[in-house]
Request: fold
Amino acid sequence: MSVTTTSSQTRGTEPPLLVLSSSPHIHSPLTAERAMYTVLATLLPVAGVSVYIFGWRVLPIVLTSVVSALIAEGVAQWARRRSPWRSLKDGSAILTGLLLALTLPASTPLWVAALGSTVAILLGKQAFGGLGHNVFNPALVGRVFLLVTFPQLLSDFSGSVRMVDTVTTATPLAAVAQGQTVPSYLELLAGYRAGALGETAAVALLLGGLILIAFRIINWRIPFGILATVAIFAWAAGQDPLFHLLSGGLILGAFYMATDWVTSPLTRLGSWIYAVGIGLITMVIRLWGSYPEGVSFAILFMNMCTPLINRYTLPRPIRASDVSEEVSARA
Amino acid sequence: MPWLWQGRVAPRHIPEIGLRSRANWRSSQVFQPATPLLFPCQDWQGNPLTPQVKRGEEVKVGSVLAAPPNLDSAEAPLVSQGGRASQASQRSSIQAALSTAGRPAAGPVIAAAKGRYGTVHLFSPVAGKVVDISHRPGGSGEFVPVIAISPTAPAQEQEAVEVRELPSSEESRLQLAAAYAGLDLALFRNTDWLVVNGCDPDVGVYGRRCLLRERLADLASGATALASHVGARHAYLAVTRGQLTAAELESLRHDAAPLELLLVPAGYPAGRPEMLVSRLTGKKPNRCHNAGSRRSLLPTTSSPAVYCQDGVTVVGVERVAALGYALHHHRPPAETIVSVDGDAVSRPGVYRVPVGTPLAALLELAGLNLSSLRLLIRGGCLAGQAITLGDAIVGIDDIGFLAFTSAGQRASDAGLCLRCGRCLDACPAGLSPTTIARLAQKSLWGEAASAGAERCLGCGACAYVCPAGRPLVQLIQLAQLQLELVK
Ligand code: SF4
Ligand code: SF4
Reply:
């Protein structure tokens, strides 16, 4: 967007080559790349807590997932004759791989993780035309693919919890469904419960989410709207709101999945509609659906509605009332 | 709480990246360039004027340098054609005063009259000799005649030479002073609210806050006269919050008494005239449609010196101070206050310079490192215009210049839109920049127009915040230009 020109100097000396670019001449320090890496940084403590709770098994799963996401991204970009390096370094593939890994149980075989993140990148993102064009959150596409293909593997939470004696091997939501004892709030908060790798560390997730909100990287309306809707719905249905907030993948989903820039609505009003929609669908699935957990499906469903929400909430083209009269000075 | 679901009218504060805080700057001593002073034959809107002097001629303080080309120069009224009917008699009294002073003979019409014409005369603020009249690019990028005058003495030391008798009535004195200050009083005709804009409107310019501190007397007398002339119901002085200290604000409130203070929040577009109008009227801000404003050939997104819309007229504080000066001293304003900042100058600061100083001379004074200069901006970082060094001239409307050693801080590369919605959040006009830019990229100008392309202020907030580094405002400006060409 810029041309270089020789300035016709009024007096002697070397005429400098000046850049004639159009305004603005400065740019906000928050670039896409920086945002992605900040999100990644806030997920590191989550992964740390996960290692603490589930043991060293976590690391190979995360690494496999991230590396296969990177490979899939690179190959797909190369096949589409785009520069692979540019899209690899923006951090989005790493983020997809990490997020996917955090939704898997600790007993997941490595090849399943690799398959999941390859599908996430290829089907969830590159099939639509790469970052910015995808309709669904890629990590969730990968997770739902695995959930539907290997339901057994993905709901096997056995033998991996640090505090085996205090916690049952069913996830809290499944425990409720089966009438078993459920963990206390404290156990839910600290993550001493069965669940996927990243779901359990509620404190770390909340902290990371709040940091992202403080840096204005994610839109606070989305997690807030989701959590508020879930709490109100649970309360109205006569269930314990706090339990519903802390269990399952709700916090991970609300702060890290639903807030994905590409697949969430553009406007503020749209964000509210989207968030309330996710909260409602989550609770409907939790209370009446055959799956004990519904966050992934809820987010994917609302991702699908995003273009529609955008269509109705984007600023309207000119309305007569907005166009103020031109004051003609010498009409 | 509409902010919950609607975009805010003003985007969040944009930090002044790469520039240190200049809150307490004061202007330095008046500087005298060694080179002749340059006066482009243009009015405040960039409309061409016809030179009325010849090379080698001696001019006095207050001599007519250039006149509107559409009028027979011998009969050209001193003030605009479009004034109130009741002003006609007063106008003729000024004309009479002018003719007694022995105006220089009309020169040949050089500037080809095209499009709209200028409406005000250009007066010489200094006495001296016309050493050259050459065609150079003016502020709008078109070539205009530029009159070079070598002053006989520093402008400030020259006695105010009474080239003409003073008009007797208060009203015609104001007319004359307005003409000296280059203001077209006809523009203020429909003013219910008068706003004197004392906000530094962009990131990295500081001229106006210094002017508020240092030329309060001129400002107050100019504003008083202007407000009573236009019969405005309210007259405001807009000041950015935090731009002046509390004590300074208090003295402003006291000394600029007829003006109510309008405190504007800090943060980028809030000080632009469109935003001030929107604050007062409660309507969404709209692009300036001053009658007669011409589109610049160079990309410029800063706003004009006088901006009128919906009964609100916003005029820059420097023009009002010029008017006050002209009223008080009966001569055209000879100096102006501009800031110079950026990493290519070693002595950044606010300078008092004679009107007509070549920019190169000012930058030399500010310690410009010529070999490292890469980007020179007239105005601020967000809506300023990148210019070349050689032809720029410091005029009354200039508030500041920026000189950088690198080509601006931009996002590394322009990628695809990530649909993050930041540009919508930032847009003060309530548009969807990403939508309009996408349409403009596909050359769908009509669709871009119905998405509101013509209402874009060109403030640049969208391109500033876009994390993908998309050239949003540039594409929207392109659409505006295309739409204008079609008309
Ligand atoms: S430049 Fe961008 S932010 Fe500013 S008014 Fe235009 S579209 Fe809106
Ligand atoms: S700010 Fe940039 S990336 Fe975000 S929606 Fe606007 S154009 Fe797209």
Summary: The first helix of chain B runs from residue 88 to 100. Residues B 426-429, 431, 433, 456-462, 472-473, 476 surround iron/sulfur cluster (ligand 1) (CB under 6 Å).
